[in-house]
Amino acid sequence: MGNYPEDLVAPMRDELSAAGFRHLLSPGEVDAALARPGLSLLVVNSVCGCAAASARPGVREALGRGLKFDQLLTVFAGMEKDATQQAREYFEGAMATSPQVAILKDGQLLRLLQRSEFLDRGPEEIADRIEAAYRGALAEA
Predict the structure, then answer these.
(1) Is 48 labeled as catalytic in the residue annotation?
(2) Which CATH class is domain 6-140?
C-alpha cells in the first residue's frame, strides 16, 4: 500500500500510461520486465513537483523526438515501494532519488538520470538530457 491516495496519484500514472508506459507493481514484475532482451526506459515516478513540472513532461517530449525503446516501464516511488526498491537494485548502487530515469539494455544499466538533473529545469531541457543519454547508451550498446 502506498503513502498517497490512489485518486491523487492516478493522473500522475496516467501521464505516463498515455505515453505507452507499463506500470510495474511488484518486484516480480520488475525482474520479469528487465529480464526481457532489448532497450528499456524505466522511470521512477513521483508526486514531487519536479516530476510534474519537468520529469514526466520531459520524458514524453523525448519520446516524441523518435527515441525508440523496446519497453517503456515505470514504478511509482511512495506507492509500490517493493517494486520501486527492486527497480533501484538495477541502478548499481546509485543513491535512491525521485524521480529517476534509467536506460537499460538487457537489464544492465547504461545511463541514469537522478533528481538533481531535473531540478530547476524545464521539460525541453530534460528531453535534451534524456536524448543525450539515449544517444550515449546506443553508442555503447
Answers:
(1) yes
(2) alpha beta
